[in-house]
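Re: your question about PLK protein kinase

S., sorry for the slow reply, the queue was backed up all week. Below is exactly what I fed in.
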Amino acid sequence: KKPKPDLKPRSEEKPTNPDRIDDKWRPPVTITEPGSSPETYAMGRKLGKGGFAVCFEGRSRKTAEIFALKVVKAKVEQRKMMEKFRTELQIHAKMHHPNIVEFLRAFTIGDHTYVVLELCPNGSLTEMVKVRTCLSLPEVRRFMIQICGGVKYMHKRSVIHRDLKMGNIFLDSRMNIKIGDFGLAAVMADEQDRRTTLCGTPNYIAPEILSKSGTRGHDNKVDTWAVGVICYAMLMGAPPFQSKTQQEIYSKLRTLEYEWKIDSKNYIPQQAKDFVASCLNLNSAERPEMDDLVEHEFFTMGAIADELDTSTLKMTPLWL
Ligand code: ADP
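Result:
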């Protein structure tokens, strides 16, 4: 996208978005779902905030199970955002896979819509990689195989995620991958082309999304590109095209300008580089399907961590 001309004074650069939940907003102590068999949630700590949503823990009064309650404004001013929420809920509700955040239900009370999601208490891959700098090969293999498994499931059901990135990939209590945030997801047959209005996050964006030439709309291979970016980022600690400005990121990814910096402490085997390179192919048609990726030699050439405990959020596992 073309950068917008800088017309506004600095102080007004970030106008408050009326569709965004206020930072200071707190939910009531308990939330009772409307309906014939209502469920009451005791609201707990804030889990995080996104572009539009705020997420809190909510403990079910019936079962004592804790969920993540994502709160968004029930009435948003921008029509596009309303569509985004609707698509997100419709698509997410149909996804049932061990590596996809389970969507339980959604309901509206007053000005807020609550989305009840499976709780992922260990944050996202972004935080883990930030703390650890980079992850070990057995960990990366475990996470990548789970990510590919979840994405394969979506693609089989004609769903493209379109916003796969470390920040949308959460960890459950047993350090299993849970892919979340279906806010940009689309069903493949969808004629509507939303590339100009909604497009992933600069670091993870596939080149065909940037080029205005193709009019057929992007296919599921945009997710394959993002999978390559994620794998590189876990191995190296930062995305491959990381730069100061969005323009620089775009120019680097268009020419596949990335490198594997040699470091005595961080050995990257050729199979891992091949895995990433196969995903980061400028020609989307040549990128592998998830079926091929899960068979990649990267997964068979070395150990896969079969269990991880939460200490690995902070430290390299002791068995390494
Ligand atoms: P948005 O759609 O506004 O971007 P997100 O889906 O990214 O909102 O959620 C906002 C934040 O809430 C996330 O960054 C994360 O910290 C937290 N969060 C979201 N879903 C869960 C979940 N299932 N379990 C735990 N925390 C979550």
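The CA atoms of residues 8 and 14 lie 10 Å apart. Residues 8-14, 190-198 have pLDDT under 50 and may be disordered.

Happy to talk it through on Thursday.
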